Amino acid sequence: MTSAEYFKISPTNLKILKEQAIDWALSHGLVIRTNSNSTSTTVHAPISLFPSPFPKKEFEFVLELQPIFNLLFHKLSNDHEFIEKVIGELTDVDDFVGKLYDIYSTVRKEGITQQISLGLHRSDYILHLTPNSTEVHIQQVEFNTISSSFSSLSTLTSELHKYLLESTKYFDVSPTLKLDALPKNEAMISLPKGIAKAHQLYGSESAVVLMIVQPVERNAFDQRWIEYTLMNNHKIHLMRKTLFEVQREGKLDKDTKALIIDNKEISVAYFRSGYGPNDHPTEKEWNARLLIERSKAIKCPTVAYQLVGAKKVQQVLAVPGVLERYVTNPSDVTKLRSCFAGLYPLDSSLEGEAAAKLALEHPERFVMKPQREGGGNNIYTKDIPQALTRMTLLERSSYILMDLIQPPMMGNIVVREGEVIQGEMISELGIYGIFIGGNNEDEDVVINELGGHLLRTKGRETNEGGVATGYSVIDSPLLI
């Protein structure tokens, strides 16, 4: 099925399809909270009505990459010299990174209580269309080490698309479309399975999992499915607390350093908050982060993991010779490098000055990226000259420069809050990874596996890619 065939749907059948999709979403928990602060009103999650065509070869390639990336970032998180050199340079130019680095340094000097770490990662990619060609190849956007969201709702969207295909055959617009072109997506059970394994390794049956959340969370149901799956499949209880509540109610056992909240010992501290400055409005939230990091609880992520998820690390890994220090198989190095876009520093080095000059001369070729997660932070193309001109060298140094990926356009029809939108779209594929290991890197690997996928689709004029931030819809791939 080509994306152009989606637009052959008659208005009558499109109305039927939209109503079926919305009702299925509401019936199966494929929902988000409304924009209000109400906890009792919901709306269907923003979704595509059709799966988006995606090259099977490239999809299978990024599945192959994920375990390699999982181990790479685990090794980086255990390399103090690397963190000190790469992240330490950011502490003077980025207050948020500086605060995290202070926590990292403090706990390292005190002695790390918990040697096991849990990584629930997501590596994001966009297809790049080779200039003057029809060939596409995958390029990495970023590697997320904290709060990798939408694992639950992405699985539900995959199931929605299968249901719509089975129930309507898409009105025979493309009778050759088969269910086996829609890949199985186990993200909904994979992430809770990783948390459950970490809980088991912690070694206390009476302990509970802590999910650190934001005070107001539209995407609560994606998180709730993790909570319900932990209970239904693994008989593990999960409590939700904000950083402020952790600071107010949490304490460490003076002998074991176990984290105690509401008289419950915490086995795993799973962050769905804490990835940006807005999550730390006061020192109380920072004190909570320090308390958790000092504790015996298994962290997802540790502060070291969070630091190596910085965009600066992504840029440094692209420097010849760096990747080879951590990935011993030359074939794996070649595979990883093949998905890297052009990445450049914007600091005071010769390379940084050259990159800044190039960005001013040809801004349409680039995007500037700060050390931030959550969407809405990047500076694109025509906005780059004004931003660079306004910034001091210190401010500029907190960004990296990246070649702008040029994706192929496709058509799709999406639904947001009941409104049908159709037109040219682009998609971003995320692959989840589950990793559990200790400080001895290769010798202490407990789990290193795939965790499902997420496809987000947006209008071609939209730069950012977040669903929760209102830029994208949740989609699923149709392998071609």
Automatic annotation (TrEMBL):
Residues annotated for substrate binding in this entry: 122, 146-149, 217-219, 223, 272-275, 456, 467-468
Gene3D superfamilies referenced in this protein's UniProt entry, alphabetically: 3.30.1490.50, 3.30.1490.80, ATP-grasp fold, B domain, Glutathione synthase, substrate-binding domain superfamily, eukaryotic, Glutathione Synthetase, Chain A, domain 3
Keyword Nucleotide-binding: yes
Binding annotation for ATP: 142, 311, 369-378, 380, 402-405, 428, 458, 464
Reactions performed catalytically: gamma-L-glutamyl-L-cysteine + glycine + ATP = glutathione + ADP + phosphate + H(+)
InterPro entries: Glutathione_synthase, Glutathione_synthase_a-hlx, Glutathione_synthase_C_euk, Glutathione_synthase_N_euk, GSH-S_sub-bd_sf, GSH_synth_subst-bd, PreATP-grasp_dom_sf
Key word Metal-binding present: yes
Cofactor binding, note field: Binds 1 Mg(2+) ion per subunit.
Molecular-function annotations in GO: ATP binding; glutathione binding; glutathione synthase activity; magnesium ion binding
Domain of life: Eukaryota
Keywords: ATP-binding, Glutathione biosynthesis, Ligase, Magnesium, Metal-binding, Nucleotide-binding
Ranges where the Glutathione synthase substrate-binding domain occurs: 207-308
Pfam families: GSH_synth_ATP, GSH_synthase
UniProt EC number: 6.3.2.3
Residues the entry annotates as binding Mg(2+): 142, 144, 373
Pathway in which the depicted protein is active: Sulfur metabolism; glutathione biosynthesis; glutathione from L-cysteine and L-glutamate: step 2/2
Cofactor(s) the protein requires to work: Mg(2+)
Listed GO CC annotations: cytosol
Listed SUPFAM superfamilies: Glutathione synthetase ATP-binding domain-like, PreATP-grasp domain
Similarity comment text for this entry: Belongs to the eukaryotic GSH synthase family.
The protein's assembly and partners: Homodimer.
PANTHER family the UniProt entry points to: GLUTATHIONE SYNTHETASE
Protein name per UniProt: Glutathione synthetase
Species of provenance: Dentiscutata erythropus
